[in-house]
Amino acid sequence: MLLVLCVDLDDDLGRKTGFSTPVIGRDPVEEAAVALATADPEDSDVNVIFQGLHVYDDLDSRDESVEVAVVTGNEEGDVSANREVGDEVDTVLASLSTGEDVTALVITDGAQDESVLPVIRSRVPIDGVRRVVVRQAQNLESMYYTFKQVLDDPETRGTILIPMGILLLIYPLALLGAVFELPGLVLGTTSALLGFYLISRGLALGDRIDESVERARRSLYAGRMTLIAYVVAAALLVLGGVNGVNTLEAFDVSAGAGTEDAPVVLAALVYGAVQWFAAAGVTTSLGQITDEYIAGTLEWRYLNAPFYVIAMAMVLHGVSAYFLNVGELSYLATMLTAGTLLGIVSTLAFAVAESRLSDGTRQVEGA
Hints:
Helix content: 55-70%
Distance between the termini: 80 Å
InterPro entries: DUF373
Transmembrane segments: 160-180, 186-206, 227-245, 265-286, 307-325, 331-353
Organism: Natronoglomus mannanivorans
Largest sheet: 5 strands, mixed
Strand order of the largest sheet: 2-3-1-4-5
Number of helices: 13
Pfam families: DUF373 (PF04123)
Order of helices and strands: EHEHHEHEHEHHHHHHHH
Shape: elongated
Structural class: alpha/beta
Radius of gyration: 38 Å
Protein name: DUF373 family protein
Strand content: 5-15%
Number of domains: 3
């Protein structure tokens, strides 16, 4: 048996005529079509139901086993409407008193109603789909539904509408810039915004920023010390940069000096900033060590990090002081030696501690 199934996804029939659905059988379906046409002659679902009757009459005149029915969803659309259509299809199939296999010919008025096809196909095989449109407005609803889907999709909306909006703003902003005699600034800013947007989309920077914010949020609620350490370290790095520039001015060295003065400029920057940078490194390493200890994953070699930072800071401070003639050769030698020894001693000390603790743990387990 072929079931001619007329689909009204938004339940215009029920809302405008009061008919209870599903409507099954040739005469009840014709009454429903006439009632809907009387209530709203412009409703496209009227054409769907009359098309279903036309198909039914054509197949019935050829003595084929056929039945016609109207199923509806609801105004909510999407999942809720699809589920309601599925329930009504189950009701229709249960009412068919036939021993034959049932297949369906689905009749709709556009792409929106066809979104329910997977639901119908899960209940009864579909032999075909027929879309009914008014000739004067062919494909109009499909175009509307396509545009609606594009605008409802956040990904597509951001990809299409934002660049288009920026481009459309260029002309009015250029006029505004001409009024204030700053056309170049306005056009340059608009072009830069469009360029930054396209680069961020191409490199997926939005997703990375979202991931970073989510990690920061989890760290904040998890009580991770690393988050606070990074904030303090960032402040120390800024202070170090400022102090390095001040050191340049104090030693009367120009940042735009020639190639022969480049080592002196670099030495002045390092001499003024290295203490602050070292403090930032020690802060972040201590924050990481604290989190590892709380998580129970701390290993002895992790404790080398702050000592390595201090050792490198000592070496850099000695070298920069020597280049600036504020430290003698003996001071440079002392810093180099002290930094090297600090790194070696910390490495050996924590390696021995880790080795002995590991051996003690194995002996306890063996006992």
